[in-house]
Amino acid sequence: MQVAFKTHREKFLPFLAFLLAAMWFGAARADTPQGWWLDQTDRAGIEIAPCGAALCGWIEWLRVPLDKAGKPKTDIHNPNTALRSRPLCRLQILGGFTPNGQGGWRGGWIYDPSSGNTYKSVMHVSADGRLHVRGYIGITLIGRSTVWTRPTTALTPCT
Description:
8 strands, Lipocalin, eight-stranded antiparallel sheet, 1 helix, single chain, mainly beta
């Protein structure tokens, strides 16, 4: 009977490779708003991705995707009555964000489906990995901030 023993190096190298990959992808993910986020209520999942030279974001998951009548939720608060029947799932709510050169993103806009209002917006990922999004009117002092978090489990995109 032959017994094979792995050296410490043979055991350690795969672990080291895994650890380095986890650190690399974690670090790359931590400083960019790209990817999946849960809004401040944990009721909507937003995916942020490049669109042209900017970053944009779409509602790609809803905790409760259906209204009381059992139909997909729509943009009922939109001031444009012609847009009130568009589904919330896959609705673009962020757009036009470009890097500000200081680790944040500027020049964007955010749409709030709960009010139907669109605001200028800036965002940045804090050291703790949370996304701080500020919608404002005119200047950033006149606005409201919200904090989004990365989901801890995979979200199933809207169908």
